[in-house]
């Protein structure tokens, strides 16, 4: 269904033994004017422009145990909302989210409303331009050894990662208590290492520092980090809120890419019958709010997402839109032997994101990065991974430990 210029279209998956047509009408009225048939004609005329509308009811085959289900698409007049996530999400799924077996699976906004959200400032093209890399997926390392270490120790670990050839290094999303190595000191130290690497090798690296603290101070803190030389920001978007990401991405003084982490989002998308779908939450909404790179569970790793959902997240991040396309970064449990599958499923416009697959390499983090570099080169060149391992001892050691995943 195409977007309507006068409505925000919300599609819900509903389950239960009930009249889906009556349910759709109740939603359309209940989330807009509240009541309709009992209103006097004069009030109806005044409120008609604010009344919700049922656009489509698609009954689906019942579940395996015979529970009826359907997709309901409801239109909410754009006159009812302001261009911000709290207004739109409360309108389409506020009290309805407490209605039982109902899941918000999609949202469509008319272009004039969608264009009032920032979208990615850099997106795929901008991040590639910063790094000077065009012809392959990017490689990112997760900074796993972080909590409780001194700045000197962290610098040593950081150097091991960039020596492995990664394009980006991101903080672990749980890195909040940083008394021994405050974020602004990490930014200065790691960006100095990045400059030294660039002078030595010609290759650039982005460091995504975890942006944390009270929401009321987050914008100011982000600006301080950027002024200190930060090249990328990491945000746990779901706990902090989509509107926080929106405000960060729209601020002209925060002129670095923003990376969205999916922490806590499983509480919203994991149920098949309730919550918000993962493609909508991690694909559309993150991109609309301004994320340049979005992490989400891959179909193969330790916290796997169903393959069709994971692919849909990536498609929403990169589809043609009023906004720049954002980088998908399928994550969790990624090792070098999975790179051919990642390349097959997510293509060149993606980020290979690894934590244990780099740091758990038998020869250390630098070798772990080199193993991924060799695996990505082989995948892009159409060369079998085991064949490529004959020329790459780090990749060979990784395969011996984790194997090669079969598609």
Distance from first to last alpha carbon:
33 Å
Number of helices: 18
Shape: globular
Q: How much is the average pLDDT?
A: 93
Coarse structural class: alpha/beta
Strand order of the largest sheet: 12-11-9-8-7-6-5-13
Largest sheet: 8 strands, parallel
Radius of gyration: 23 Å
- Kindly state the number of beta strands: 13
In percent terms, what proportion of residues is strand?
A: 15-25%
**Poorly predicted tracts of residues:** none
Helix content: 40-55%
Question: Can you describe what's shown?
Answer:
The structure is a single chain. This protein is an alpha/beta fold and 407 residues long. It is 42% helix and 18% strand. The protein is built from 18 helices and 13 strands. It has helices at residues 20-30, 41-47, 85-93, 111-114, 123-131, 151-163, 183-201, 215-227, 237-240, 242-250, 266-269, 278-289, 307-318, 339-346, 356-359, 365-381, 385-389, 393-402; strands at 7-15, 53-60, 69-77, 102-108, 138-143, 168-171, 206-210, 232-236, 258-261, 275-276, 293-297, 327-331, 351-354. The strands form 2 sheets. The protein has an 8-stranded parallel β-sheet, with helices on both faces. It is globular. It starts with 6 loop residues before the first strand and ends in a 5-residue tail after the last helix.
Q: How would you summarize the topology of this molecule?
A:
Elements: E1 7-15, H1 20-30, H2 41-47, E2 53-60, E3 69-77, H3 85-93, E4 102-108, H4 111-114, H5 123-131, E5 138-143, H6 151-163, E6 168-171, H7 183-201, E7 206-210, H8 215-227, E8 232-236, H9 237-240, H10 242-250, E9 258-261, H11 266-269, E10 275-276, H12 278-289, E11 293-297, H13 307-318, E12 327-331, H14 339-346, E13 351-354, H15 356-359, H16 365-381, H17 385-389, H18 393-402
Parallel strand pairs: 4-10, 5-6, 5-13, 6-7, 7-8, 8-9, 9-11, 11-12
Antiparallel strand pairs: 1-3, 1-4, 2-3
Helix pairs in contact: 6-7, 6-16, 10-12, 12-13, 16-18
């Amino acid at each position: 269904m195409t977007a309507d210029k006068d409505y925000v279209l919300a599609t819900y998956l509903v389950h239960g033994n009930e009249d889906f047509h009556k349910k759709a009408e109740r939603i359309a009225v209940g989330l807009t004017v509240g009541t309709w048939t009992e209103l006097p004609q004069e009030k109806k005329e005044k409120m008609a422009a604010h009344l919700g509308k049922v656009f489509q009811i698609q009954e689906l085959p019942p579940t395996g145990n015979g529970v009826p289900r359907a997709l309901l698409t409801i239109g909410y007049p754009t006159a009812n909302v302001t261009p911000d996530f709290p207004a739109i999400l409360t309108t389409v799924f506020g009290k309805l989210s407490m209605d039982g077996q109902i899941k918000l699976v999609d949202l469509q906004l008319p272009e004039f409303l969608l264009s009032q959200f920032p979208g990615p400032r850099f997106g795929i093209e901008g991040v590639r331009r910063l790094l000077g890399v065009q012809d392959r997926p990017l490689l990112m390392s997760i900074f796993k050894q972080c909590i409780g270490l001194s700045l000197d120790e962290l610098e040593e670990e950081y150097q091991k990662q960039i020596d492995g050839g990664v394009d980006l290094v991101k903080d672990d999303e749980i890195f909040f208590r940083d008394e021994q190595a405050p974020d602004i000191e990490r930014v200065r130290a790691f960006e100095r290492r990045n400059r030294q690497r660039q002078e030595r090798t010609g290759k650039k690296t982005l460091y995504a520092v975890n942006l944390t603290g009270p929401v009321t101070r987050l914008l100011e803190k982000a600006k301080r980090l950027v002024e200190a030389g930060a090249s990328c920001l990491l945000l746990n978007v779901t706990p902090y809120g989509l509107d926080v990401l929106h405000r960060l991405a729209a601020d002209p003084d925060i002129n670095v890419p923003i990376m969205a982490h999916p922490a806590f989002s499983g509480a919203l998308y994991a149920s098949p019958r309730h919550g918000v779908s993962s493609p909508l939450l991690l694909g559309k909404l993150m991109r609309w709010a301004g994320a340049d790179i979005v992490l989400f569970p891959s179909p193969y790793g330790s916290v796997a997402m169903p393959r069709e959902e994971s692919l849909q997240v990536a498609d929403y991040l990169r589809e043609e839109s009023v906004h720049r396309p954002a980088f998908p970064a399928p994550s969790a449990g990624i090792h070098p032997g999975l790179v051919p599958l990642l390349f097959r499923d997510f293509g060149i416009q993606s980020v290979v994101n690894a934590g244990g697959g780099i740091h758990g390499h038998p020869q250390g983090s630098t070798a772990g990065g080199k193993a991924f570099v060799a695996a990505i080169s082989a995948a892009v060149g159409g060369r079998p991974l085991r064949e490529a391992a004959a020329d790459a001892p780090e990749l060979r050691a990784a395969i011996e430990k984790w194997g090669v995943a079969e598609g």
